[in-house]
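Researcher: Quick one. two chains, 743 residues in total.
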Amino acid sequence: MPETQEMIINMGPQHPSTHGVLRLVLNLDGEIITKVTPDIGYLHRGIEKLAEDMTYAQFLPVTDRLDYLAAVSNNLAYCLAVEKLLGLEVPKRASYIRVILTELNRIASHLVWIGTHALDIGAYTPFLYAFREREAILDIYELFCGARFTTSCFRIGGLPQDIPAGFVEKVEKFVKIFPKKVDEYEALLTKNEIWLRRTQFVGIISAEDGINYSLSGPSLRGSGVKWDIRKAEPYCVYDELEFDIPTGRGVGDVYDRYLVRMEEMRQSCKIVKQAIAKIPGGDFIANAAKIVPPPKERVLTDIEALIHHFKLVVEGFKPPKKEVYACIEAPKGELGFYIVSDGSNKPYRLKIRPPSFANLQSIYKMIEGGMMVADVVAIIGSLDIVLGEIDR
Amino acid sequence: MELLFNTQELIDRIYVFLTNLCLDYDIPFWVLTVVIMAVVAGIVAGFVAVNTMMLVLAERKVAAHMQDRLGPMRVGFHGILQTVADAIKLVLKENLMPKAADRVMFFLAPIIVFAPAMMAYVILPWSPGIIVKDLNLGVLYLLAVGSIGIIGIIMAGWSSGNKYSLLGGMRSAAQVVSYEVAMVLSILGVIMIAGSLKMGDIVESQKNIWYICFQPLGFLLYLMAATAECNRAPFDIPEAESELVAGFHTEYGGIKFAMFFLAEYANIFVVSAVCTTLFLGGWQGIPGLPIILPPILWFLIKTYAIVFIFMWFRWTYPRVRVDQLMTFGWKFLVPLGFINILITGLVMVIK
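Model:
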C-alpha cells in the first residue's frame, strides 16, 4: 500500500485572499491544516533605513506607505513621536481635528476590512456597500488636504492648514448616516447562519495567549482584553471624549473580532460626533519658529521668516539627543515609532512597531486544532493585516 | 396567434406538412427524420448558446443592482452585447496548456462538462408538444445526465497538475455525490403523486393544482440541493475563489474556460426548468385563472424567476465550509427528504 503523504500547498504571494503579498506554506492532510509557515518580505522597501537619510519632515510622506489603508494614523503616530522628541506642544484645535481625521480613518480602514473579510468568506455584496461609505470618507480627506489615499495630512506641530469651508457640514452629514449603514452590513452578516458557522469557534486565541503573542488592537479585544491605548495612555484629546471599548463575547474567535470591529466603527462615529461639536478656536499649528515653517506671506515680507524658511527646508530642525517611543491605537492595533536622535537633523535610527507584524505571529496559535483551508482565509481576514506595514 | 397557445396543434401541422412533402416528392422517410433531428439539435444548441449569454448578462446586472451599481453599460444598450463581446474575446484567446497537465484529459474535461449540460435540454417540456423527446424515464434521464458532468470536473481538477485544481475537483466530487442523493429524494415525492417519470405527464397532472402545494418541503429541498448541484454560492466550494483561486478551472483559459462557464449557466437553466416542471406546473398558467399568456411564456417566466432566486442567493450569502456542506447534505437534507417521502406515502395510502 502506498504511504499517505501530506500535501504542501503554497498560498500566495499571488493569491486572492492573502491581502497583498503574504505567502503561507500550508501542510495539508486532506483539507485539514497540520502546519502553517508564513513567509513575509515580498513588499520590503527598507522604510526604516530610508528614515535614516531623511530629515524629520521629509520622512512624513513615507509613513503613508506603511499601512496604506490607514495613512492618517501612521502620520499621527509619527508626528506624535517627533513632537515628543522635541517636547513640542500641539494646539488644542489641531488635536481635535487630528482626532476627527484619525477616527474617520479608523472607520475607512475597518470598512476595507469588513469588505475583504466578507469577500474572503464568500459574501460579495458587503464589499461594495463598504466601499460606498469609504468613498465618502475619502471625499472628506480630499476636501481637507487634496489627497485621498496617501494623505500626509498632518505636520510636525499641527496641521498643514486650517479646516476648509464645508468640512464640518460634510463630516456631520457622514456621521449622521453612517450608523444606519453599519446596521445594513450587520443585517447581511451578523445573524446569518452561514456567517456564524464560518466564524464562530474558528481561530480561537485566549486572552493570555493573545498577550503573550503581543496581539493588540481589535484582535486582542476580541479575546476579551479591555486594552486600548486611547484609554490606557490617552494622546491628543481622547481623555476629553467619551467612548467605550468593545470586547466581543469573550471567546476570542473570528466572530468576536468581527463584532469588536463592527462596534468600533460605531464608537469611532460617536467620537467624531463629539469632537466635531467641540473643536475649539486657536491656531492649527504650533507657534515654534525653529520647527514649524512660517506661512508663505510672511516668508515673502519678513527677513527673519525667510531665514527660518530657508533653514527648515534645506536643513530641517535638530532635535535634542534623546530616545523616544510614542504609540497610538491605529485601526489594526498598537502602532509605535521609536526614534533615536543623535542631535543631527536626521534620525540616527527609526524603528517602527507595526500592529500587523505582531498580530500575524498569532496565526500559529489560531491555526491549531484542525483548521481547514477555508478557515485560514477567515483567520487572515479577521487579523486584518496589511503587508505594507509588515514588510515595511 | 391561436397557434401560439395551442402548440401541440402547431407541431402536428408542421409534421403533417413535412410528411406530405415527402410523399409528394418521393423522399425516403429517413431523410425527413435526419433533417428534423438536425434542425432540432440546431435549435437546442442555438437556444443554449443565446440563453446562457443572456443569463451571464442577467447575473451581472442582478449582482450590480444588488450592489448599488450599474453593471456593464458600454457594449450595446445597457451593456446588452457585453457577453457577446466577452465570448468573442475568449474564443480568440490563445489556447494555453500548462506543462504539468495531462494533455488528453485536460482537453476532454471541458467537453465532458459541457455536453451533459446540453443533453439535459432534450427533456425540457417547453409547451404542449414542444419537447425534443418526451422520454418515458424523463426524470431518471435527467439525473443520470446531470451527474456525468462531474466526471469532467474531476478530470479538470486532476489533469491540470495544480494542487488548487485538485482540491477543487475533489471537493466537487464529494459535493455532487452527496447532493445527488438529496436531490433525488426531494423529487421522489412529486413522482409518487404524478405516478410517472415522463415530463409531459407530470406537467399535465398539475392542471388543477401545482405540486408545490402538496410538496412545499420537497420544493425547498430541491432548491437547496439544486444550488449545490450547480456549484452555486453558497455551495460554490469547488471553485471557492477566495480559497482555491478558481478551483478546478484555475488553469483553463480561452474557449475551454468559456465552456465551463457556459456549462454552469446552462445547468442553472436546466435545474430551474426542472423545478418549474416538477413543482410549479410547467407551462400551465395559474390554475383557476384564464390563460392569458402562451404556455411557452409561462414556462419561461417561472424558470427565470427560479434562476433569479439562484442569483439572489449568490449575491447575499457567504460561502459554507466544505465539511459543513457535507454535514448539511447528509444530516439535514437527506433525512428531511426521507421524511418528505414518508409523509407523502402515508397520505397517499390513507387517501
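Residues 29-66 of chain B form the longest helix (38 residues).
Researcher: Thanks, that's what I needed.
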